[in-house]
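Notes to self after the call with IL:
- keep both proteins in one doc
- input above output, always
- annotate only the second one for now

Protein 1:
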Amino acid sequence: MKRIILVLVLLASPIWAVEPDEMLADPVLEERAQALDHEIRCVQCQSESIASSNADWARDARLMVRELVSGGNTDTEVLDFFLARYGDVVLMRPKSDGANIILWIAGPVMLLLSLGVGGLYLRRRRQTVVQAPLSEADEARLREILEE
């Protein structure tokens, strides 16, 4: 049982990416910094926020967030600091304005378009499948087969 708990703790350790030496003494500022850590994407990992990443860049970014927060910057100013240096890719939830609006709209539009094209294809396919009547020779052959 102890081994299982040890393995689980070792596997879950990357979750606790914020090191004790990174934490601010003021709990209110630390709470703000941790909330911002979840808003900023690690540019090295690209799939994790800096709060859960153990990459060196993420550590530096967490330290920079704490430095900016303790320096009196607002949350918006901290996010703008990272946006100015790394672009929209640094946000875990990209803004839905400007050029990004195309990306936000493209997915649902493509889904609706593909559903419409697929529906039209199936509808036309159903309409074009018309059974032609059997010729007299085919009917005679069918009767022979059924009688056997």
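Protein 2 (the one to annotate):
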Amino acid sequence: MLSGLSLAETAILLAAGVILDLLLGEARRWHPLVGLGMLAQWLERRLNRGRARVARGAAAWLLAVVPLTALACALRGWALHALVLYLCLGLRSLRDHALPIRAALAQGDLPRARWLTSRIVSRDTTQASEPELARAGAESLLENGNDAVFGTLFWFIVAGGPGALLFRLSNTLDAMWGYRSERFNFFGRAAARIDDVLNYLPARLTALSYVLLAAPGGRLRAWRCWRSQARAWSSPNAGPVMASGAGALGVTLGGAAVYDGELETRPVLGAGPAAAAHDIPRAWTLVWHTTLLWLAVVATAALVHGALHA
């Protein structure tokens, strides 16, 4: 592997990173993604102007990502690899942000549910109904399971701490710049395309994992939803993840949502009734079980490799 870590070391460090994330949650101070966000805003204000905005956006991506990734490449030692992975993972953060939405909806506290949902999605939630909030919460869990967890784990397996950091920095810049709006259509194009490339394999492995972990009788449905619906979604990587996840849960996602004051009607994904509040913890459980599956697969591969080379 590119990291120089053995398969056994990688398996141990994956488990360590996940355990640290579950125990500690997001770092409240000195979080690299928070620092990246501030740097990205500064770069965008200074470079997103004039002509050649695609090239300017590519230069901004390099300035934001390369120095931090190069610093991570200089790190040595297991503990530092585990620390970088912990800082890049967002598993507990997904749980801590999404499950309170379910609780607020169960209590009938729609204003609080709208505020909680607004923290994890880019759509306008100020007038959102309970079904719309439930759908947004489930969608965010399924999609960000890939972006905040499985993509990070994949690139850690490939390239250790530097790989995990490269992926998360790239994904964060896509989330900030990768819009087809007047402001970002050209400037954010490089960030969007790079994230598409880095996310291509993790997204499909995530979609396959959702298929495998579907409830009995749901695997074929999840597979069919993935293969027939994903291409209609605007994102080439979110489509497979969300279609298979919705199929695995036996619910439908997508439909109308308000972005920047404009009503957008997105393709319907999945099969069954519209996602409801109780489907938010079901989506979290699917993400959690997928995490355990990935850890088990890597640990098993390490044991088999060790036995064959003993």
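Annotation: The chain has a mean pLDDT of 92. The chain has one domain: 7-200+276-308.
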